[in-house]
Amino acid sequence: MPEDLKSTTQNLLKLLGVTPEEIAVDIDETNSAQIKLTFSPEETGILIGRHADAISALQMILGLIVYRQTGTWQRLTVDIGDYRAKRTAVLETTAQETAKRVKFSHEPLALFNLNPFERRIVHMILSQDPGVVTESQGEGRNRHLIVKPAAELKDEA
Length: 157
What we know:
Blueprint: H1 2-16, E1 22-27, E2 33-38, H2 41-48, H3 53-70, E3 76-80, H4 83-105, E4 109-111, H5 116-126, E5 132-137, E6 144-149, H6 150-156
Parallel strand pairs: 2-3
Antiparallel strand pairs: 1-2, 4-6, 5-6
């Protein structure tokens, strides 16, 4: 399966007119695939895109291709130039700082301009903090994440 996924990725990128310096595919125990792509610095930014739109679109297209080939959905994560790892580190810091502010002020705070991947990361990071709870609100591009003090939930009950 990793070789099939690697060749599928290579074929898609060839159709897009880009050639990666390296393609690495790793499948974990939950059958989730991590596809790491390395490009020249000039191509990296373009392929990640504004607000990671391009990398998310590439991930979605690859997921659809794999579904068409296998008949089953497989969780795929595409990472270009370690963007996801770097972004996760930034989101972890942002989540922890937001949790501190929420616990200090006892007021909910909204985090805007996060894509679904980023909201999921913040939800997972803050699920470990018993002092706050998170929820997503809104639809489409207006979807945002709310961080609330956990005590607020007890008051509402």
